[in-house]
Amino acid sequence: MTGTMGPEKRRAAFEKAKIISATPQSIQNDLVSGEISLADFGLVVFDESHRAIGEYSYVFIAEQYMKTAKKPLILALTASPGGEEEKIQGVCRNLFIKNVEIKTHTDEDVRDYVNPIHVEWVKVDLPLKFLEAKVLLERFQKSQVEAMKKLGFGIGKRYFSRKDMLMMQGRIRHELLQRGKTAPSLYAAASKIAALLKVAHALTLLETQGTYALNEYMQKMSTESGNSGASRAVKSVMADENIQKAKAICEELMREKVVHPKLEALKHILVAQFHENPESKVIVFNHYRDNIRSIEQYLQGIKDIRAARFVGQATKGEDKGLSQKEQGEIISELRSGKYNCLLASSVAEEGLDIPEVDLVVFYEPVPSEIRMIQRKGRTGRKSEGRAIILLCRDTRDEAFYYASRSKEAKMHSTLRQMQSPKAIPEKKLALQTTLTKFTEGYGDKVIIYVDSREQASSATIKLKELGAAINVKQLEVGDYILSDEVVVERKTVGDFLGSIIDGRLFGQLTAMSTNYSAPLLILEGEQRELYTLRNIHENAIRGVLASIALNYRIPILYTQDISESAQLIYQIAKREQLGKENEIRLRIGRKGLTVKEQQQFVLEGFPLVGPSLAKALLKKFGSVRSIVNASIKELQEVEKMGPKKAKRVHEVLNAHYGTGEESKPLPKDGNGFDEAENEPAGAFGEGNDEMENPGTDEGNNH
Predict the structure, then answer these.
(1) pLDDT higher for 368 or 696?
(2) Three-state SS annotation for 135-163
């Protein structure tokens, strides 16, 4: 069961099946919308359970299961729970785990059933030109570090890790929010730490990937620095003499087609592998998608190597992602032998049914013990496995490799200590206030209509936990509809600033204020970050905020985080709905529609009917009344109105309200008109009089 299966099919399968194997997101979505219940399930198994942290679907599913199941039992499986005891404890708490059992390849009851994986290291050295570029990049870093020290932010490590830099960036940002304009030096520090991050990434690409990936990155920064909205960090990086010299060396290496020595080593490894075993299969893991394309191009035409690029679904710039279907086709072609080598990003580390491979090659070591274990686990399943790690001497490669080995050893030690049940503090599941009790005295449920794009957000999950009845729809306006008058658009500070830059915001505000009498904008996050997060002038942001309040007349409510946003949305919905008899309107239509526009609007409310098909129907039949009275065969005479659409529209027009069964025709006079109404039979139900004035709000709402 996956998200590609429609909700109705999932619901039907859920009612019949004894065992369900599902993606967690599909189960979470159906739990949120109330389509399914876990009350009758005797066991839930969470595979790759190390993912059960933060907002991942496993956490929500486990809580819902423990709340509703009669006799809940949870089994959590993972080959790589992580090295930090606090994180492992968190996973256990989130999944209500009381006992830990650890098994390794060396355990007596396991070793006869597993295959050894032989790990080799192939070490290479950077060419002289690479070292020259490296020295230039490090000079820039040194100048930034010295400047940071003078500003009161000391840095003293040889390899100042990305994690440490991000922590420093967070500290600077926090102080900016606290002191703001009283400490102008903080702005300089923020710019320098951002520049350090960019050049650290360039160094990583140079040392571990090669000229293609570095050149792509340098060109991207160069283009960005020429834009008027470029950050000070990018401009300072690209204006530096050392960076320009490093960029020139990189371009020279590209012209001369000098590649990273890892590429040569990889070619020799693959040629030897396929020469020795022509039927074998290999996965080459690379952390950087930009470089996978260059590896693919380098290996093209080499005898016996049939390599395929295998990446995730997201498209990044010109690097097009692979759809789920395309991924499946490549895996099938690897299985059939069309390809014998996958050049894969982290997407192939877990979760996909990739065939057994004889060799796994790490293009670079990874500092995560979890990812190291997952990558090695792709081999050695049916026979002895082999893993080769490419490592460049005296670079970040060495630091990453030893970090992952240390973390893996620590993980096993931590797990051994946790095997005692008492080592895991039991998670107490707070009894939640029931919906009935929460709305006691009102007699109604709080219903919140959520846009389908918000379905998987933490806010929707928290609304469900608060007791709201969630109804997921593709909304035409806003993220949440709370009543016939109130529509809510929720934006984080980052998304708000991004929507100003790309122009989305103003279209959204117009649609909200035009169609709802009480639109509302929730701005989520630290309010002072409005003026520090993006390179937008403070006065421009203040102008936008003033325009929202005065021109669009939309109130802005500020919240600290997603939890507070959910609480606020729920309370507004409760205020709007409980004790009232108003039904919530979902469809919208702007005021003052002409008769022609209103006819099209009515038809667009039919299933599978969009603007072009609505116009074609009106052009063919001449009026809404004639369309309503048309047979399935007559409807199919319209272009793009196939049998499926025609049948669906006909069913909706003729089904009895509530039962879904086809209505019997009303008594008619000789002219085919209802005697009581003097209207064509079945043309309209109650409320025809509200359609008579197309210029009123009431008419537009039906």
Answers:
(1) 368
(2) HHHHHHHHHHHHHHHHCCCCCCCCCCCHH
